[in-house]
Amino acid sequence: MQALTPHVYWAQRHGEIYLRVEISDAQSLSIGVEENILHFKGQGHGAKGENEYEFSLEFLKPVKPEVKHKSTQRQVNITVKKQGHVWWDRLTKQEKKPLFLAPDFDRWLDESDAEMELREKEEKINKINIESRVRKDPFLGLKKGFLFMYNLVQFLGYSWIFVNMTVRLFILGQDSFYDTFHTIADVMYFCQMLAIMEVINPAVGLVKTGVMPAFIQVMGRNFILFVIFGTLEDMQNKPVVFFVFYLWSMIEIFRYPFYMLACIDTEWKLLTWLRYTIWMPLYPLGVLAEAVAVIQSIPIFDESKLLSIPLPKAIGFSLSFSYILQLYLVIMFLGLFINFRHLFKQRSRRFRTKKRKAN
Ligand SMILES: CCCCCCCCCCCCC[C@@H](O)CC(=O)SCCNC(=O)CCNC(=O)[C@H](O)C(C)(C)COP(=O)(O)OP(=O)(O)OC[C@H]1O[C@@H](n2cnc3c(N)ncnc32)[C@H](O)[C@@H]1OP(=O)(O)O
Q1: What is the pLDDT of residue 157?
Q2: Nearest atom (ligand 1) to Cα of 224
Q3: Into how many domains does the chain fold?
Q4: Domain range enclosing 99
Q5: How far does the centroid of ligand 1 lie from the alpha carbon of residue 214, in Å?
Q6: Is 23 found in the same domain as 152?
Q7: Are residues 349 and 262 in the same domain?
Q8: Any idea where the CS domain is (predicted)?
Q9: What is the pLDDT of residues 162-215, one digit of tens each?
Q10: Is-above-0.80 flag for pTM?
Q11: Is the CB of 257 under 6 A from ligand 1?
């Protein structure tokens, strides 16, 4: 029997070459790559009836020597892996296309379509990986339940503070500034003590965010609340307490419900926008109000010698706490810078992901 050449159809992806050889019920197949040339030999029913068919193809660029093939009732499918992850301009080294070779339009993709197909595949794999990782955590429900309750309690606490202060502002006007501390402090103490969880949660991996920004936030506020307002009675009836508490609660009545919804995999667009936007004016205003409180407390600490550090008798005086407060003022603006940058990053990450999802 004289060997004939079968019809061969080809297509490519970035990493692979697909060949379809038009021989049905192929037998005695011998397929291999040697020195970058594919050699095919086999018996079966092709364009010229039952016969022996063979062909060789020298590839344009290097391919891996191992070849996969599958013979079906209608054809022989061959997959050859490219050495590099590159798109080829044509299949063969020789510029003139062999007569028996043609594009396989069933599998044909141009380069950009193939890239898209690759990206879709990668996204699908990533999604499966994430889903299986999430499914693997047996305590996920418990963790989410705990976070939901934590956020709910904080939300209720801060809502009470915000509503109470707003109502008092409407009824009493500026007079409400002077006794904010006495009406609000207990609930604020409770919420801010509880807020220490916000440092612990990322530290133990319960929420995926940085420990440092949360530490700066919680410790910064607790310093103002417990040290400046808590220890100095003279500070407690100053209007600055109103502004500090009002600015703190204003962000929290949006932040905590946003987290609550996140715990039940729900999102309200307006709430997300508010959570990631209103800190822009509130944060600098909050730091400014806190700085005013610190500055106002300096003469009081100086006068009362409260929290001052006694030095040896020979020196004859003690180290006033006001020095620490002056240092704290500097740290505060450093903290503002760190957290402002962090919040900007969180904002753009959030809205970038959203945009990508929408496309
Ligand atoms: C004595 C020594 C003291 C030393 C310290 C020095 C201090 C310096 C002073 C600092 C100045 C502080 C000033 C400040 O007090 C003034 C004010 O607060 S004014 C009012 C305005 N303030 C704000 O807007 C800030 C509000 N606070 C925050 O936003 C956070 O506390 C902050 C840590 C700054 C940022 O939050 P986070 O990093 O968590 O970002 P995200 O909200 O995007 O969350 C990231 C992902 O984690 C999930 N997450 C987070 N927490 C929870 C939760 N409780 N429950 C459920 N899920 C949570 C969240 O959903 C995100 O997940 P995903 O990405 O999947 O959406």
Answers
A1: 98
A2: 15
A3: 2
A4: 8-109
A5: 5
A6: no
A7: yes
A8: 3-92
A9: 999 999 999 999 999 999 999 999 999 999 999 999 999 999 999 988 999 999
A10: no
A11: no
Are both 40 and 85 inside the same structural domain? yes
Residues 332 and 227 in one domain: yes
Predicted local distance difference test score (pLDDT) of residue 18: 96
**pLDDT value, residue 2:** 62
Q: In this structure, is residue 180 part of a structural domain?
A: yes
Q: Are residues 47 and 165 in the same domain?
A: no
Cβ(219) – ligand 1 distance below 6 Å:
yes
CATH number of the domain bearing residue 76: 2.60.40.790
Distance CA 207, CA 214 (A): 11
Question: How many Å lie between the centroid of ligand 1 and the Cα of residue 294?
Answer: 22
- Determine the distance separating the centroid of ligand 1 and the alpha carbon of 227, expressed in angstroms: 21
Residues 334, 272 share a domain:
yes
Q: Looking at the DSSP assignment, which residues form a beta bridge with residue 12?
A: 17
Residue 235 lies in a domain: yes
Query: Does ligand 1 come within 6 angstroms of the Cβ of 262?
Result: yes
Ligand 1 touching residue 26 (CB < 6 A): no
User: For a pocket test of ligand 1, which of 339, 351, 354 has the largest count of ligand atoms closer than 8 A to its C-beta?
Assistant: 339
Only one residue has tokens 């006794």, namely 179
The CA distance from 92 to 112, in Å, is 21
Q: Which helix (H) or strand (E) element contains residue 78?
A: strand 76-82
In the reported structure, the alpha carbon of residue 280 is separated from the centroid of ligand 1 by a whole-number distance in angstroms of 13
90 in the same domain as 219: no
Pull the structure tokens for residue 307. 């929290």
- 305 pLDDT higher than 80: yes
Q: Which residues are catalytic?
A: 283, 290
Please report whether residue 166 resides in a domain. Answer: yes
Q: Are residues 164 and 312 in the same domain?
A: yes
In 83-197 the beta strands, taken as DSSP E runs, fall at: 101-103
ipTM over 0.90: yes
Assess whether the C-beta atom of 330 lies below 6 angstroms from ligand 1.
no
Q: For all residues of the chain together, what is the average pLDDT?
A: 92
Tell me if 123 sits within 8 A of 218, measured CB to CB. no
